[in-house]
Amino acid sequence: MEQFFYFLSFLAILTSIMVVVSKNPVHSVLYLILTFFAITGHYILLNAHFLAIVNLVVYAGAIMVLFLFVIMFLNLNKDAEPKKPVAMQFASVLAAGLLFLVLVAAVKDVSLGTSSIPVSNIGYVSELGKLLFTKFMVPFEITSILFLSAMIGAVVIAKK
C-alpha cells in the first residue's frame, strides 16, 4: 500500500506541474483529469469511498468535460494570446512565492488531532450524513442556498 501511495503522490505532483507548464490548453485539461484520478486514488487509500466517487464523477467527469468544451469552443491559439509584460510575469512569480511561503507556514504548525468519528467508521456515507445533518447543519444549508442562487444566476445570464 505504501508504494501505491508514493506512486499516486508522484503522479499527482507530476500531472499538476504539467497542467501549469503545458502550452496547449487541451493538454492542460487532460493532465488535470489525470490529477483528479490520482487524488481519487488517495481518497480510496484513506477509506473515503464516497468522496472518491464524488471526486471522480463530479470533477473528473462533469467539470472537466465543461472545461474541455469551453477551451475547444474558444479555439485558443498562440496568435490570439497577447504577450505578457515582464512586470506581470515578475508579479505572478512573486505572488506564487508568497503563496508557497504561506502554505509552508500553515502546514508547519498543523497538529494531527483526534477525530470525533471512530476510526472504523471513517469514510462511510452514513457517518458523513450524520455529521452533515447534526454538527454541520447550518454550513450545509448555507451552501445549498449558495448553489441555488448560482443556478438562478446562470439561468438569468443564459436567458439574455
Structural features, described:
It is a single chain. The protein is an all-alpha fold and 160 residues long. It has 2 domains: 1-78, Four Helix Bundle (Hemerythrin (Met), subunit A); 124-160. The protein contains 6 helices and no strands. The chain has helices at residues 2-21, 25-45, 49-74, 86-108, 125-132, 137-159. It is globular, with a radius of gyration of 20 Å. It starts with a helix and ends with a helix.
CATH topology name of the largest domain = Four Helix Bundle (Hemerythrin (Met), subunit A)
The number of distinct helices, counting runs of at least 4 residues, comes to 6
Q: Which parts are unreliable, with pLDDT below 50 for 5 consecutive residues or more?
A: none
Structural class: mainly alpha
CATH 2nd-level architecture of the largest domain = Up-down Bundle
Work out the number of β strands: 0
The CATH top-level class label of the largest domain:
Mainly Alpha
Order of helices and strands, N to C? Answer: HHHHHH
Cα Rg: 20 Å
Instruction: Report the portion of residues in β strands.
Output: under 5%
Question: Features of this protein?
Answer:
mainly alpha; Four Helix Bundle (Hemerythrin (Met), subunit A); 2 domains; 6 helices; 0% strand; globular
Topology record:
Blueprint: H1 2-21, H2 25-45, H3 49-74, H4 86-108, H5 125-132, H6 137-159
Helix pairs in contact: 1-2, 2-3
